[in-house]
Amino acid sequence: MPPKNTQPKYRQIADYLREGILDGTFPAGQPLPSEESLAKQFGVTRPTVRQGLSELRASGLVEAIMGRGTFARSPHNRPSHTRPRGVRRTPEGRYVEADGIRWADAEASVATRTDAPLALADLLRIPPGEPMYTYDALQTADNGRLRQLHRTYIPFSVLLDTKYEEEAPPPAPELYTALADLGHELHFTEYVRTRMPLPDQAQALRLADGVPLLHILRVTLTASDKPLALEEFHLPGDELELSFRL
Q: Which residues form the signal peptide (predicted)?
């Protein structure tokens, strides 16, 4: 008698579909069995089926197309979107994102005062708890199809003896021009990792269950490598790859 499968049902569904995608039973680009048929096959509810599908979506083996269903993807397929990373300066002297996307803030971004947490203080080389100007923005492009969360941090100590002691500097990318106008020669370092989103982040970015975030920290530095500001980006981690020109 074969041993009983003691794995949770959603994981049995994920394993069944994963094996079928990898061995060609479910060819790339073709629809997978419907949620209803999988629910009957495994004797579960449709939410359990969706939980299994979310595991495969997070690993890039399936994609959901609104109004059409869920389709198999080859593990060798390229993602749907490639985003160049970095900052470039236009001939007019403006700083713009390398991806060329015109991002719009969902709401007007307002400067707030926050205290530097330990991890960010370490990157900015400032004492933990130092006050900073902080801007938060949900940004969209392509009629809302592309979404990202963007946060800008500027330590107060960077602004000493400048006009920004009395007024808040602008958020990035306008911040770069403001810092250059103060006489700084700028360059940038980015740190990239993945993690699962917090509930409010998943809601803002419209992430399906099981889809991770790309978490990017960008530090703006002077020519002598003194940190001036830090940005935090949260991007959907499915169907997206980042490219860096070296």
A: none
